[in-house]
TrEMBL record:
Keyword Iron: yes
Domain of life: Bacteria
Coiled coil: none
Annotated SMART domains: FeoA
Domain Ferrous iron transporter FeoA-like: 1-73
Record-linked Gene3D superfamilies: 2.30.30.90
Alphabetical keyword list: Iron
Protein's recorded name: Ferrous iron transport protein A
Length: 82
């Protein structure tokens, strides 16, 4: 699943970055490494960019960047994450 597939309020964990070169470097620099939790906070009125909560910081990413981020969804239960 791609980060762009998540709806507002949904969250997941970075599984893999498919970006190359400067885009990959930017995503790594903002902390998007395997296992990082990402939550969709809001989208602009025209749908791009989208605001994400990443490592306690709100970061706006355009679809052209977010499409390179593979996400996995993990359900939480009363004992923690499954």
């Amino acid at each position: 699943m791609k980060l762009t597939d998540l709806s507002i309020g949904e969250e997941g964990f970075v599984e893999k970055l498919e970006a190359k070169d400067t885009v990959r470097r930017r995503l790594l620099d903002i902390g998007l490494v395997e296992g990082t939790r990402v939550k969709v906070m809001r989208r602009s009125p025209l749908g791009d960019p989208t605001l994400y909560l990443i490592r306690g910081t709100m970061i706006a990413l355009r679809k052209e960047e977010a499409q390179f981020i593979n996400i996995i969804i993990k359900e939480e239960n009363e004992n923690g994450i499954n």
